[in-house]
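Why does this matter for the project? Reviewers at the last site visit asked to see concrete outputs rather than summary tables. In response, this paragraph embeds two records directly. Each consists of the residue sequence and, immediately after it, the corresponding structure tokens. Nothing has been edited or filtered.
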Amino acid sequence: MRYMTLGLLTLLSCATAHAEVVTKSVPYKQGDVQLEGYLAYDDSVTGKRPGVLIVHEWWGLNDYAKSRARELAGMGYVAFALDMYGKGVVAKDRQEAAKMSSEIKGSPLVRTRSQTGLDILAKQELVDPDRIAAIGYCFGGTTVLELAYSGADLAGIVSFHGGLVPPRDEDKKIKAKILALHGAIDPFVPPDAVVAFEKGVQKAGLDWQLVAYGDAVHTFTNPAAGTDKSAGAAYDEAAAQRSWQHMRLFFDEIFANK
């Protein structure tokens, strides 16, 4: 029995050693704009699996969004971090990030460009097109809400410390379930914005959840934000871990019913 156990452990170790998260750049276009996303998946998983679209912060498609793609791939999903700005375009500072994000937020581009990224993910050979979710951070959190409101074919979306915009009156064919993960003292998303969001999604008859993390401000998932909460944006380890777990539970729910 001892030798059999050792043999099984050896086989499992070999299987683990050969498992690998594969990553690749994916060039694509939206209109005349050249974009480049980042695809990640575990090549040891066989068959089609759920896909997760990732929308970056206002900085652009940087290492943080890519690290989340790799983490999701390690959990068995096909993850695609889309590009909202253009191939290789990443803001150098807050002023440039604010300018670039403001050119997209509130315009038709926020929905059309994110839909283009969703289309790329849905066409991947390993993705089950009936089991796709989208997550986004800050600017990306607002973007995935807008994508859901557009009626995109999504099982659900998760907004991490995003702007909590409500749906418009004309948004009538919303399919996605919504999970909004919010810093309770986020100065960039004040209480009146939270109330407007709650009223809007309730009026629209959506399946929605809002989780607020006490003492957390904006950007609470990103260690690069530092820990000075007086600036309004800071990493909060407890909120970061709790929000990731809430996302995982949400995925278990929405993908189990497909």
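We now turn to the second protein, recorded in exactly the same manner.
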Amino acid sequence: MQMRLPVRWYRAVPAAQPQGLVEERWELECARTALVALHCWNIGCPGGIPVPADFWVFMGHPHNHEVAWGVMREQIAPALAAARRVGMAVVHVQSEPIAKRYPHLQPPQPPPVPSPPGPAPISDHGARRAQRVHGQGYLEWQGWERLDAAEAVYPLLGDVMVASTEQFDQWLRGRGIDTLLYTGFATNLCILDSPAAMKVMAGLGYRCVILREATAAVEFPDTWEGQQQTQAAVRYIEAWVGYSASNRDYLRACENALP
């Protein structure tokens, strides 16, 4: 099937007066496109893990977790269902502990490629700073053992789950998929920099698109109004990484997809 999707990107020239956001319409072959749900976790979700009071994990503040749950329920779940209807691949990018729960959905892992060790850290400052920010002992939080996909976006038979860039890339190449539509969390963190996320996949030549309403950044109490961190992360993607599209336009494109 084929679908027409409006996407946008930021043209930064001429430097003194940038053209700004440019919109174009793509003709997408559903068989060459994958919808990606990245790090849709069950923290702060109904039936999931309560947001810890002593640690800043996943989306951090309880308000952010409420926002993320709403995005999963109202935006990502319909996006996944639409992809399945038009025969588009649905891929869940998850951490290794979660992926191990779903061996039946995982493609083979390519053999690891040894790399030379880098220099040792000059101090443990990074680890100590992380403890100060996220809470002393956050890596030992018992909730990590119950971490799973959120119920609203639970993987189904026929979906795929990956935990590494190499695994994802190998699977995509084997199916001729070159366009990735990303949803999930957080726009200013894992969507950009985790394994199989937008920056590393764009570096491998894939066209990467963030669906704007189907994601949210980690916001702070002084940035909630206007979703400043989310908007900044989307603009970063549009200027330096790939493209963005409206989830509404994506859902409409799926409804109007043609054989």
